[in-house]
Specification:
Number of domains: 1
CATH class: Alpha Beta
Strand content: 15-25%
Oligomer: single chain
Distance between the termini: 45 Å
Number of strands: 5
Largest sheet: 5 strands, parallel
CATH superfamily: HUPs
Shape: globular
CATH architecture: 3-Layer(aba) Sandwich
Number of helices: 6
CATH topology: Rossmann fold
Structural class: alpha/beta
Low-confidence stretches: none
Order of helices and strands: EHEHEHEHEHH
Radius of gyration: 15 Å
Bound molecules: 4'-phosphopantetheine
Helix content: 40-55%
Mean pLDDT: 95
Length: about 160
């Protein structure tokens, strides 16, 4: 069984993340979406809230599991018997960081490979930080996140 891990901060999950999760779910036998604990300094959502939002948004995908992890990603991958790490590549600006991360992970765990999905064009510019910034200034984020995530984000940020 091919199990893949899609790791990230997901603060919060965007339509871009959901696009990658759906495409990975269609390609892999099992996809574990793993939220990094202690990764962000000032997250809007707690890890448990991020896990819950991801669960709600992916409940239609039977082979997708949501989890949280601590420590090194490759150690978590080993614990979950996953040989593939999935990452989304948006623009060329992502490349350097992603290359460094995938090569480090491969050095640490040669039997774990990173597989990149190029993000769909309509989400190529999208990031959770941009979504939070637009929301904080009262901008329309409905194209970037689902209605449920939008209302939860507004509630957490103390916006209408
Ligand atoms: O969505 P993000 O914030 O870009 O995700 C980054 C993430 C969680 C994939 C990365 O920070 C990570 O894997 N952290 C776990 C610690 C680790 O294994 N670091 C070594 C990889 S270079």
């Amino acid at each position: 069984m091919v199990t893949a891990i899609y790791p990230g901060s997901f603060d919060p999950v965007t339509r871009g993340h959901l696009d990658i999760i759906e495409r990975a779910s269609a390609t892999m036998e099992k996809v574990i979406v793993a939220v990094l604990r202690n990764g962000m300094k000032n997250p809007v959502f707690t890890v448990e809230e991020r896990v819950k939002l991801l669960q709600e948004e992916t409940s239609h995908l039977e082979n997708v599991e949501i989890d949280a992890f601590d420590g090194l990603l490759v150690d978590y991958a080993k614990r979950r018997s996953a040989k593939i790490i999935i990452r989304g590549l948006r623009a060329v600006t992502d490349f350097e960081y992603e290359l460094q991360m995938s090569q480090t992970n491969r050095k640490l765990a040669p039997d774990v490979d990173t597989l990149f999905f190029t993000t769909s064009l309509e989400y190529a510019y999208l990031s959770s930080s941009i979504v939070k910034e637009v929301a904080s200034f009262g901008g329309d984020i409905s194209a970037f996140v689902t209605p449920h995530v939008e209302s939860e984000l507004r509630r957490k940020m103390g916006l209408k």
